[in-house]
Design goal:
18 helices; alpha+beta; globular; 4-stranded antiparallel beta sheet; about 625 residues
Length: about 625
């Protein structure tokens, strides 16, 4: 009993997340997989979402430009530039602030790859200083069809902005994405970093000189991504990121000169997302002020910070105008994809908590003084709700937990993979055969954050319920930083030190240390993948937490399974045990075709030897 108690104490000290109800490291890993499912273009050899294949291979051809690549924004097959750029900006901001935490979770490399998939596309989409392609595909014709991206027959026309057809919001957000990404690549790929920064300079100049709303030029986007806030917020947002990327005084002066006139110090915000950037600008400028960089612009920057404080206080329910919450505690802005506002707000409260801690400041709200830790606790409460701590006990991240959406509003996920069945799915036939199905999606859209519940915590898991079951890249992007931060613990630390992590060195690890990921091991229709998701040092010894995934690759349910686990020197969770044999957990009667289960164990050496002893197919 004494040894068991000691082991439990060690685990509590080393891995508090394992006992807090959620594995943030596992959620982080899953959330990154979603971006691979959204890839357009020629997929790389290391593509991990294997049910996807190449798509959009002629994008841009009719316009004489190569626009192959980038991301599909949500459950359709259109590439919308504005939300894609915001997605990349937020992924880059996550790496800038929490790169070391991403590295500790073994996900820094995957995060950087996800960013580069977007920036490589933006380089193609920006062939001239004053030309930017902002959309490929037509939302109207695309939504008329329900087809896999690999064989879509819809219109792939490319739409652009230029001096005669300006789009300051689109160009400004893309400039912000390129500038933020240039910081990410500064040490690991300096040549690429300088290229991104050059594009950012040009895009900002284009946006500032030729002013106008992008949806007045690309009118086809109005129905889907209308720029309600205009372009002033994107110009300020881009200037803030260019200052952070270049340390060029011009951009700091731009914020100081234009902060009042462009609304940066005037708008009291209760939302932040792909359209409205003011809260993000206010947070960044507040950081510059706390770092002592404001100079003669300090009075203006203090007004920026006052608005950032307003946003944070409204989220905590301690302001003069507070954000609505559901009975279960989730912030609520709108029924259609409300989760986008939850993840973006959670990111801002997370970084602002660390900014205040670093400057040894508190948050001043109309209801009183608030410690920075309360902001981080708020972010944690929202993430925990997403992961299942809610009245429905539903995880709104696909593939995380035991109860998550099974009928996602997503073309690729809902139609059998082209690798499994080559039968062509027609435009309208997809609706009749696949969209209308009542069964679960044939392809698991791992890591996707869906739109989420309504104002009363209600949720209907139906494919036609696009307001609640459709995912989006900009739902996931802000969550990367929050999950990385939460997985590292809840204590404050300085965010004002150089934050760009050292390059990811892709070389074999020493034999005495466990590898981050073991190769896929298969026994017939059963595949096993192991991965390190955390570590800590206690009394001079390093302990590793391993997440192991068992995948049923057959076309039939796996009725029974016996695993042999050798060289295991610690506790294990997620399997039933009988003597030296391990099987499906007691609550799981079978493992459906194409599905997987995960179990976790902790010990202080290389991965245990996990193998299949026997199995039975239904």
């Amino acid at each position: 009993m004494g040894s068991v108690a000691a082991a439990l104490l060690l685990l509590l000290l080393c891995f508090p997340v394992a006992f807090s109800g959620h594995d943030y490291g596992q959620a982080l890993s899953k959330s990154l997989l979603f971006f691979e499912a959204q890839r357009s273009g020629v997929l790389p050899r290391n593509q991990r979402v294997t049910w996807r294949s190449h798509s959009g291979l002629t994008d841009g051809k009719s316009s004489g430009v190569n626009l192959v690549g980038g991301y599909y924004d949500a459950g359709d097959n259109v590439k919308f530039g504005l939300p894609m750029a915001f997605t990349v900006t937020m992924m880059a901001w996550s790496v800038i602030e929490y790169g070391n935490q991403l590295r500790a979770n073994g996900e820094l490399g995957n995060s950087i790859d996800a960013i580069k998939w977007g920036t490589d596309y933006f380089i193609k989409a920006h062939p001239e200083p004053n030309v930017l392609y902002g959309e490929v595909g037509d939302g109207n014709t695309d939504h008329y069809c329900w087809q896999r991206p690999e064989e879509m027959t819809t219109d792939r026309k490319a739409y652009r902005i230029d001096p005669s057809n300006p789009g300051s919001d689109l160009a400004g957000e893309t400039a912000a994405a390129m500038a933020a990404a240039s910081i990410v690549f500064r040490r690991s790929n300096p040549v690429y970093s300088r290229l991104l920064l050059t594009h950012a300079y040009q895009l900002f100049d284009f946006a500032d000189k030729y002013r106008g709303k992008y949806d007045s030029s690309i009118t086809i986007a109005q129905k889907y991504y209308r720029s309600v806030s205009g372009y002033n917020d994107e110009l300020l947002w881009a200037a803030a990121w260019l200052y952070q990327a270049s340390n060029n005084q011009f951009y700091l002066d731009y914020l100081g000169r234009n902060g009042d006139a462009m609304g940066g110090t005037g708008w009291s915000m209760t939302e932040f997302g792909w359209d409205v950037k003011y809260a993000g600008v206010q947070t960044l400028v507040a950081k510059f002020l706390m770092q002592g960089k404001a100079g003669r612009h300090a009075p203006v920057f203090r007004r920026f910070k006052d608005k950032a404080d307003f946003f944070m206080c409204s989220l905590l329910g301690k302001g003069s105008r507070n954000i609505q919450k559901t009975p279960g505690g989730l912030i609520f802005r709108q029924r259609w994809n409300n989760m986008q506002f939850v993840t973006s707000a959670s990111f801002l409260t997370t970084v602002y908590s660390d900014y205040l801690t670093s400057s040894r400041s508190n948050l001043r709200c109309s209801a009183g003084i608030v410690a920075p830790s309360q902001l981080l606790s708020f972010a944690k409460s929202q993430v925990d709700y997403i992961l299942g701590d809610n009245p429905r006990a539903t995880s709104y991240m696909v593939g995380y937990g035991n109860n998550f959406p099974q009928r996602v509003h997503h073309r690729g996920s809902s139609i059998v993979s082209v690798k499994v069945d080559h039968t062509f799915v027609t435009c309208r036939g997809g609706y009749a055969t696949w969209f209308s199905r009542k069964g679960s999606d044939p392809n698991l859209l791992t890591g996707a954050i869906v739109g989420g519940p309504d104002a009363y915590d209600n949720f209907a898991d139906r494919r036609d319920n696009y307001e609640q079951t459709e995912p989006a890249t900009y739902n996931n992007a802000p969550l990367l930083g929050v999950l990385a931060r939460l997985s590292s613990g809840h204590s404050g630390y300085s965010q004002f030190l150089p934050a760009v992590p050292a390059p990811v060195v892709r070389r074999p690890m020493p034999i005495r240390k466990p590898r981050v990921t073991t190769p896929v091991r298969a026994s017939g229709p059963v595949a096993i993948v192991q991965k390190v998701t955390g570590s800590c040092v206690s009394k001079g010894r390093t302990y590793y937490r391993y997440s192991t995934t068992v995948i049923n690759k057959s076309s039939r349910p796996l009725k029974s399974l016996n695993l042999s686990i050798k060289n295991l020197h610690g506790p294990i969770w997620g399997l039933s045990r009988s003597g030296n044999s391990f099987g499906l957990p007691a609550w799981m009667h079978s493992l459906p075709s194409g599905k997987s289960l995960e179990f976790v164990y902790i010990h202080s050496t290389s991965p245990a030897n996990v193998a299949v002893s026997s199995y039975t197919l239904a």
